[in-house]
Amino acid sequence: MAPALEGILETALYAEDIDGAEAFYGGVLGLEKITRAGKRHVFFRCGPGVLLIFNPAETVKPPSPDAPLPVPPHGSTGQGHMCFHVSAEALDAWKAKLETAGVAIEADIRWPNGARSFYFRDPAGNSLECAEPGLWSIE
User: Which residues form the VOC domain (predicted)?
Assistant: First the structure.
C-alpha cells in the first residue's frame, strides 16, 4: 500500500493574457514571481506551494521530441477555482486591499461550521476565494 499524499504542491489556473495574470497575481496580490516563459506561463510562490498560471493555447501543444522537459500537453477552458489560505484575522484586511485595487467581491460567506470566506475574480474570470483554514478544519 502506498503512503498517504502529503498535500498539494502546486495548483494551476489558466489565462490567455499572461501579462494581465502577472500584473494581477504579482502586483495586486503581491505573490512572488518564480519564473515566466513568454506567453506560455508565469509561476508564483504562494505560502509553501506554487501557483502556476498557464496560457491554455500554449500548453495544449505537444512538446517537441528534443524538449529538455517533455511535460505532457494539458489545458482547461472555462473558469477555474482556487482558494487562498488566509487567517481569520486577516480576511478583512485582504478584502479591503482587493476593493481598494478595484476588485469586486462577489460573495462573503459565513459557512455552517462558523468559518468565513469571500470570493472574487482574476482578470481571466477564474473564481478565487480567501478562506480561513477552519473552513476545512485545518489548524
Answer: 7-133
